[in-house]
DNA sequence: CGATTGTTTGATCTTACTCAAGTCTCGTGG
DNA sequence: CCACGAGACTTGAGTAAGATCAAACAATCG
């Protein structure tokens, strides 16, 4: 399906926002929209001709499997996020839909060419990659020393931020896009430890659980203070 | 001191290698070389006007301190590496010399301008940032699940790779640029655990220690196979 | 409705942390 | 040159946090 930039909900937040109309139309011609259902695979590790994409709606996970077959989630992608490794000979990670999602997909060659023709686009992608690096290092810092409950608290905090539309406040009530197992894979914990941590956060009056996925923050400030 | 690109040992590996002579000379005019002794600070977290730099020789660490004052090392920088956050309002990390080092330092504004004028440079930095992101995620993967000994083994492996000049083979004999404490901070372990892991790797015949810093790999293949 | 998958909770075990003591290394000054 | 002291490193014993194993419970889907 062809792109419909005019009605795109992330048109002024995604990387393509830096392009002028002409350049964006050129790029749009080489792109296609794609819809994924929860669990659908966008790219798989090892693919040689992996494309790149911008997420319009939904959520994705970027993950690998270690030698014992355990999934390890390295990052999440939220709407307006860029996905793809422009310079890798083949895809390093699996990219999978966490919820039903919509994307614009572009062949890598076209994106690389657009990069040459639009220095602004190159700069925008550099900025995004820099931010992604910061996020990755944040997670790394977290994995390094925090206690289990601190990691879970921090993940919830990040989810609350991502769930809010406005960049200043975090959502106070939202649904987790991840299963307990996925949270565990992301934080380097087990399912049981994640579950116990959530139970404890609830017992301590920091949040309330609504069903299995729903979270309501009671005391957001405390979230940041958990060891 | 002014730059001497002609005699630069990393002139064909660093990001500036993609520039033609004219463009490189332009950039060189705004840069200065800087020498650091072990322990010297290049940038500190929070600096508003942090510059950016290319490492010519030596080694750096990129680190933060958590709320309890523990250092957490997020990445190492080896010769030809690029250092700096072009789009952050202030520096996110401390950057400190691990050994005596030499760098070319550029004001951020000049680098951003060079980016606009040389799409190739933007592309080169994008590629580097992408690679740095991959390295960060690799470390993240490691921190997630591996046993202590697996993490230490993997760090040693990375050091061996970095210590070799040729990109194909890893060095078989080299000196660790990190103290036990720094290794611990990087891997999310304690000094004692790192020390015990090294002892065990030696006892199992995988490596030999020469003094405190020297490492000689006996069975490099085994390094990759540790839990 | 049953089956499957995901979640919670409990009991036990393992790994790495903590605390403590001793050793090695290296630089400084007598 | 040696003695000393400060750091860095190693090793041991006990402890704690989270993993593992196990069982019950909830949600979802055909």
Overview of this structure, please?
Two copies of one chain form a homodimer. Chain A is an alpha+beta fold. In chain A, strands 1-8-3-6 form a four-stranded antiparallel beta sheet. A four-stranded antiparallel beta sheet of chain A has the order 2-7-4-5. The first copy, chain A, has two domains: 5-132, Jelly Rolls, CATH 2.60.120.10; 146-223, Orthogonal Bundle (Arc Repressor Mutant, subunit A). The first copy, chain A, contains seven helices and eleven strands. In chain A, helix 2 (108-117) packs across helix 3 and helix 5 (180-187) packs across helix 6 (191-203). Chain A has helices spanning 21-30, 108-117, 119-145, 148-163, 180-187, 191-203, 220-223; strands spanning 32-36, 41-43, 52-57, 60-65, 71-77, 82-83, 94-97, 101-106, 173-175, 207-210, 214-217. At the A-B interface, strand 5 and helix 3 of A face strand 5 and helix 3 of B. Chain A binds a DNA duplex (30 and 30 nucleotides) through helix 6. Chains A, B: InterPro entries: cNMP-bd_dom, cNMP-bd_dom_sf, Env_Response_Regulators, HTH_CRP, RmlC-like_jellyroll, Tscrpt_reg_HTH_Crp-type_CS, WH-like_DNA-bd_sf, WH_DNA-bd_sf. Chains A, B: One of its GO terms (molecular function) is DNA-binding transcription factor activity. Chains A, B: Residues 146-221 form the HTH crp-type domain.
């Amino acid at each position: 399906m062809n792109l419909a930039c005019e009605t795109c909900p992330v048109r002024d937040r995604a990387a393509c926002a830096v392009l002028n109309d002409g350049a964006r139309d050129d790029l749009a011609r080489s792109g296609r929209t794609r819809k994924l259902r929860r669990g659908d695979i966008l790219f798989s590790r090892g693919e040689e001709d992996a494309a790149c994409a911008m997420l319009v709606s939904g959520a994705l996970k970027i993950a690998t499997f270690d030698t014992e077959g355990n999934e390890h989630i390295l990052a999440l992608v939220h709407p307006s996020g860029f996905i793809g490794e422009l310079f890798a000979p083949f895809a390093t990670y699996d990219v999978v839909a966490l919820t039903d999602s919509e994307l614009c997909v572009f062949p890598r060659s076209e994106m690389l060419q657009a990069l040459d023709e639009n220095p602004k686009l190159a700069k925008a992608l550099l900025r995004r990659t820099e931010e992604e690096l910061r996020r990755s290092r944040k997670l790394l810092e977290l994995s390094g020393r925090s206690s289990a409950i601190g990691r879970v608290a921090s993940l919830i905090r990040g989810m609350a931020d991502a769930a809010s539309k406005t960049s200043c406040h975090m959502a106070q009530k939202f649904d987790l896009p991840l299963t307990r197992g996925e949270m565990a894979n992301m934080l380097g914990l087990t399912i049981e430890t994640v579950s116990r941590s959530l139970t404890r956060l609830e017992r301590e009056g920091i949040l309330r659980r609504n069903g299995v996925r729903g979270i309501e923050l009671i005391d957001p400030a405390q979230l940041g203070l958990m060891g």
